[in-house]
Amino acid sequence: MKGTLGLRIAGVLIATLLGLAYMLPSIPGVSQSGLGAILPDDRINLGLDLKGGIHLTLEVDVNKAIDNSLAQIGHDIRSFARDKKIMVLKPHVLSGERLEFTLLRKDQQSDFDAFLSKNFSSLAVQAVKPSDDGKVDYIAQMTPEYHKHIIQLTVDQAVKTIRNRIDEFGVAEPDIRKQQGGRIQVQLPGLQDPERAIKIIGKTAHLEFRIVDDNADLERAAKGILPPDRVLMTMRTQNPDGTYMDRPLVVDKNAVLTGEYITDAKTQFDSWNQPYVSMTFNNSGARLFERITAENVKKRMAIVLDGHVYSAPVIQERIAGGRASISGQFTTDQAHDLAIVLRAGALPAPVKVLEQRTVGPSLGQESIDQGVNAAIIGTCMVLLFMVVYYGFSGLIADVVLALNIVLIMAGLAAFGATLTLPGIAGIILTIGMAVDANVIIFERIREEIRKGLTPRAAIDEGYARATLTILDANVTTVIAAIILYEFGTGPIRGFAVTLSLGIIASMFTAIFVSRVLFDIYTNSRPQLQKLSV
Q1: HEC states along 182-209?
Q2: Cβ distance 106 to 136 under 8 Å?
Q3: 529, part of any domain
Q4: Distance of alpha carbon 436 from alpha carbon 422, whole angstroms
Q5: Of 91, 94, 93, 111, nearest in space to 102 by CA
Q6: DSSP state of 253
């Protein structure tokens, strides 16, 4: 028994030391002291409602993503069909999320239909129109299932991309989540440079590569008279005297490649010490880029970022290796920020900021003060009640309650959780629940003493009978907290995190630690006849 007690005491000491080690760095002043040098770097992160920061609501242009996906499918149809000796004229995207393409030879229609059915099941052919010149026109749409998949994939990729950008920018514990209607909520607690962060987050960095139509009449294009499937864009160039000029360009309406295939981007300098951004494509992007450049030798390729042409170099030869660059009149910071958003991932579709709110730190400090005061007052009242009502046993309950709070705060720091105002409410609630477990145990011990058992026997019987009841009650609460975390929003999830940590800590302290303290007390008094409970 004594050997077992020694192991249990060691376990309590280890848990206490670990709890203090993870909790202390979150106390102001400790991390800068000599003690902070040997403690873990983990600390409790404060949420937007406590620390202040920025709240953004973004909207993803899912229609643009659908059009891009259809354009890419069109390019794939043409390329793969050519490998089968089936000639398909250049596909293009129509309004209403439709794809139009033309089969050059009617006698290949059955083979082409089988080819589409086998390789492009994501498309549903809406109309087939044979023409007098022996061609066959097709109009297709995405299947409803694939349409839904592309929208979900676009929003998920946008969330991941925004999270990667924010992580590179260095914001601690951002809260980024999807909402209905292709919207994304972003909360950035404690942001020190909001303007630059908003530019990085809000910058869509929607990168496209489009072929330039140098045969188009620019004067007619400026009047709105454009060839089919062409659009007019401008490219800013620098004159020898240092001034800038916007030059018109007629480019294909549909992009031949987008930035979703980029795996790396970094800032480099040319021979004139001007910064530019170099990019590296993944394997699929490298193959596409090689094929596109091979098909368009001696043509210009416009590099379009967020609807603006940055450069339009001439394709001199097929480009293998999956590398390209964006040059323009960048400053070093502009090139660096552009590399960040491209390296973190180009958004699959344009994103616009619907709402922007800055939460001031004064509101956060007021919330902290009120929450801390509520926690202190509630804890003191509970501690006083336990001592008055249960005497020495109440004092043991107070000790384990203090350890319970230490373990909760340590858990928040160790797991990198964010403490919010509802999270403080969850801590206050778990204080009451932790004491409730001790009350159940103490009342059981009282019942056994009234039956005539000795204090040691009453303690053994009280813990044996109360433990199962405590476990049942707390496990059901943990299940409810898990459901709140899984389906709740930011504040609700903060409450669920602290509630879950508090329940786990309270079961450990109320059932295990308090029993160890009682055993230490009774073992030091072999002739104990009366217990203050």
Answers
A1: CEEEEEEECCCCHHHHHHHHHCCCCEEE
A2: yes
A3: no
A4: 21
A5: 91
A6: S
Along the 533 residues of the chain, how does pLDDT read in single tens digits?
455 888 889 999 999 999 888 888 887 777 677 776 778 877 777 777 777 777 888 888 888 888 888 888 888 888 888 888 888 887 888 888 889 998 888 888 888 888 888 888 888 888 888 887 888 899 999 998 988 888 888 888 788 778 777 766 655 567 788 888 788 888 777 765 666 666 767 665 677 889 999 888 888 888 888 888 899 998 877 666 666 678 889 999 888 888 778 777 788 888 788 888 888 888 888 888 888 888 888 898 888 877 778 778 888 888 887 787 777 666 777 677 667 666 655 667 778 888 877 766 555 566 667 777 887 888 888 889 888 888 888 899 899 988 988 998 888 888 777 777 777 788 888 887 778 888 888 888 988 888 888 888 888 888 888 888 888 888 888 888 888 877 776 667 778 888 888 888 888 988 899 999 998 888 888 777 788 87
Same domain membership, residue 69 and residue 46: no
- Structural domain includes residue 278: yes
Q: What is the DSSP-derived secondary structure letter of residue 314?
A: B
> Residue 446: which CATH number?
1.20.1640.10
Residue type, 68: N
Beta bridge partners of 251: 212, 231
Q: Is the pTM for the entire model greater than 0.85?
A: no
Same domain flag for 192 and 136: no
Boundaries of domain holding 385: 2-52+361-523
Give the number of domains in the chain: 3
Give the residue from 256, 253, 246 showing the smallest Cα distance to 222: 246
336 shares its domain with 204: yes
Q: What are phi and psi of 310, to 5 degrees?
A: -90, -35
Helix/strand/coil for 108: helix
Residues in the chain: 533
Report CA-CA distances (Å) from 46 to 53, 135, 198, 325, 423. 11, 65, 20, 40, 10
